[in-house]
Amino acid sequence: MNTVLKSVHRIEDIMLVLLLSAMIVLASSQIVLRNLFDYGMVWADPLLRVMVLWLGLIGAIVASRGNKHIKIDLLSRYFNRTSNLLIQAFVSLFTAWICLLIAWHGAHWIKLEYTDKMIGFAGIPAWLLEIIIPLSFALIGIQYCLISLSIGRHFYRRSKIRSGLRE
Amino acid sequence: MSFAAPILLLLAIFRSPLFVVIAASAMLGFYSEDIDLSVVSIEIYRLAEMPILLAIPLFTFAGYLLGESQASTRLVNLTNHLLGWMPGGLAIVAIITCAMFTAFTGASGVTIIALGALLYPALKQAGYRENFNLGLLTSSGSLGLLFAPSLPLILFGVVAQQMNLDQPVGIDQLFLAGIFPGLLMLILLSIYSMTQPRNTSEKRSFDTRKALAALSAMKWEIPLPILVLGGIYGGYFAVSEAAAVTALYVLVVEVLIMREITIRQLPDIMRNSMVLVGGIMIIIGVSLASTNYMIDAEIPTRLFDLIQRYVDDKLTFLILLNLFLLALGMMLDIFSAIVIIVPIILPIAVGYDIHPVHLGIIFLANMQLGYFTPPVGMNLFIASYRFDKPIMTLYQATIPFFVILLIAVLIITYWPALSLVLIGG
Question: What is the interface pTM, i.e. ipTM, of the complex?
């Protein structure tokens, strides 16, 4: 399980770096081509826009790995560690539920796009461009399941140690 | 429906990721009107239909690169040699460098972390009071938000463009509109700094040789603002393309020419910057869905009618707006605040005959203050951590700066021409 997780993380990291580098090169060459040679690659602009979507959502997957999403933190200072962990476990489950719900309905939409043979641009099927949406939300959902699972395991271990001490 | 709002609010203040709270509220709305929930994914796909969004990852990456390089040291060095001889010189150096650095890196606290380490000991050595130094650096952490190409300015433009207003809001217009309000803040803070007592008799004079050396150390970064703004207003490229040029330029300068960042460091810098971008983009994505629902349900219109029953003039509305935004800036970070609140208040403000570009400047100026408004302004905690001082000390130290910038915010709010003169509005 851990090795699977690690290789998924590695793939996400590599994709981020590749996408960002490609975007810098592609966008810059567009400007050079247009201003110096009065020439533009027609497919470059829609491709760049889709890359922004992919980059953003993969970035969001990586952000959920360390629970680094933007959130309001007003109250955690007033609670002790145990209550904070319990709150975290509950909130993570809620997050997972919402994300998996979006992924589920998104997958249905992708299926329709696939059967309707919708085309995105330059002959690329639309579902291929859109698939990152259910995929990323599914992965974020799984990530938050893992977060609450690891909190649950923490409490289980602690109660075991305590009961061990009593005996 | 009515029980859901308090539950969502509770989940939000108990640290649910904000994108989840926004998505949940949109889904609840669509569900109650029997609209298939796949609409959320379809709305998120609109991220791929907005060319301007390209600017967000590219400017962010360029900012992270600048933050990792020695550019901050060189910038302080340069301004110090140019301005250090003036009364209050070093404090003005701090104000200007923080503003320039924040404009490029975003007010994510990186200014306090990167520049604070240099400026805090320097100010101390120059004989300024401890509380003045702490207050200055904490409040400077968000200074420069109004200057191009700051991310919040771009994001406000992105959100405003979704609203289909009669007056379109261009990001290049926002860049121009921010200049004078931003300068006003710098000037007021500089005047205050000049009046500060110092317990040192040391007098410095201008040293041409050292100033030229510092200028030469900075020769690759100095063209950057000219390149960005000149390119946009000279008509050579769009804002999103300016971001690509900036990213490429900074990459070449810091990695290949100055060699302050190694190629091995690049993947980590890219990854870290894209985590922030991911956090922002997913919020924009789900908020496209929630905004769409809100407009369909005519929530801003209904809210406007409600407010108009009690507030019938522009002035009262602006006063209430200031109070509301100050409270908001304390609690929400600037990106979420823009994405969640702007779609609601922008149509209302336009109803009160406020120019959308002016509203953007008012909004961001208020948010900038919120960064160090006690008790929960984010930069207060970052500074407390960075300078290892109790949070109460920082509350005290920032009071005069809060008052000065509050005056600036009020001038910006009630004098629209200051923002609009450059765009001819």
Answer: 0.92
